[in-house]
Structures are given as structure tokens and as C-alpha cells.
């Protein structure tokens, strides 16, 4: 998740983002995620898309037990933590400035016997992708990572690198602006995309995708 500077916002809809923590119950565990809007901006608060993604994972529509997963733009780490609690081996990633904060949330919320199932790692989209195995993941997760137009191309490059033809991508997002729709158009040029879940109250869409074969594979 990109780091955006803190700006004071008095609107009630944003008030929960200014709390120092957010509490949830997922995968039969009580979770308490630290938040730090002032220091790290959007990377350090729990957004609705992450909550809805966890709700969807709990439904069991995607097999997690024993699967190798990676979360992009993890922010507080909620999605990756829940995926690990549901049985996946998860690499939870974000940009370098957010890693200490992310690691602390993972350590505080995963029981000791789950700690070995998670790695926290730096990943800036489109950069040093050779550090991650090409097509090496069963599942790629992203919650509210589609909002900065400048990141769309490197995000797609990253998804293409991480995915094999059997990898499942799950993206949870709001479609706020025309640029978000534009991302979906770009996404569909490289992936087969289906909307599999919509949470009306929070206005969150979940898209499931698979990498399309390249022309040389046809």
C-alpha cells in the first residue's frame, strides 16, 4: 500500500481511522491491530476492503490450508494474518517504511504456533521482482490497493510476475473513480476476472482473477 502523508480530516466517516487500534474477530481469534494514521497515513489503518476480504476468506470459497500466499500492500497486515490463521503460508508485503509497524502487528496477533507460517517482506511494486519466485504463489491477495493511478502499471507487472496460470488473485476494492474502472480494464487485458462478492453496506467489490496465457503459450 502506498504511503500517503497524514492530513487532519474532521469528517465522522474518517474518525475510526484515527483510533490507535482496531479490534476484530476472525478465524476464531480476537485480533487487535495497531493503527498510526499520523505517522504512516493510509498504510497504517484498517480499511473496509480488508475487513470484507477477511469476511470472504472465512466463507471458505477459496482453499487456504497449505496454500502459499502473498499479500500486496498489506498495511496493518489484517488480511495476511487472517489468511495464516486459516491455514495458508503467507508472505506479507509492503514498502520499507511500513515494515516495522507491519511486523509488530503480525507478532502481536499471531499465536506462537502460527508465527512460522508468515514472512514479512519489503516489496515495492515493479521493483526487484527477481527476489520473489516467478509464478511461485497459489494465491495473491490485495485489499484496497487500487487507488493511485501511477501505481497501476507496476502493480500489474508485479501480479504478472507472481502468478502462474493456476494462481488465484483476490482483490477487494471500492470503485470510487473513473481511474479505478480504468484499472479493471487494464487488469482484464492480462487476467480473466470475475466479481465474486459484493458487500453493499461498505460498497466493497471482490474480484477473483487468473492469469491469461501469453501469446507465446497459445
From TrEMBL:
<keyword id="KW-0963">Cytoplasm</keyword>
<dbReference type="InterPro" id="IPR019410">
    <property type="entry name" value="Methyltransf_16"/>
</dbReference>
<keyword id="KW-0489">Methyltransferase</keyword>
<protein>
    <recommendedName>
        <fullName>Protein N-lysine methyltransferase METTL21A</fullName>
    </recommendedName>
</protein>
<keyword id="KW-0949">S-adenosyl-L-methionine</keyword>
<dbReference type="InterPro" id="IPR029063">
    <property type="entry name" value="SAM-dependent_MTases_sf"/>
</dbReference>
<dbReference type="GO" id="GO:0005829">
    <property type="term" value="C:cytosol"/>
</dbReference>
<dbReference type="GO" id="GO:0008168">
    <property type="term" value="F:methyltransferase activity"/>
</dbReference>
<dbReference type="GO" id="GO:0032991">
    <property type="term" value="C:protein-containing complex"/>
</dbReference>
<dbReference type="GO" id="GO:0032259">
    <property type="term" value="P:methylation"/>
</dbReference>
<keyword id="KW-0808">Transferase</keyword>
<comment type="similarity">
    <text>Belongs to the methyltransferase superfamily. METTL21 family.</text>
</comment>
<dbReference type="Pfam" id="PF10294">
    <property type="entry name" value="Methyltransf_16"/>
</dbReference>
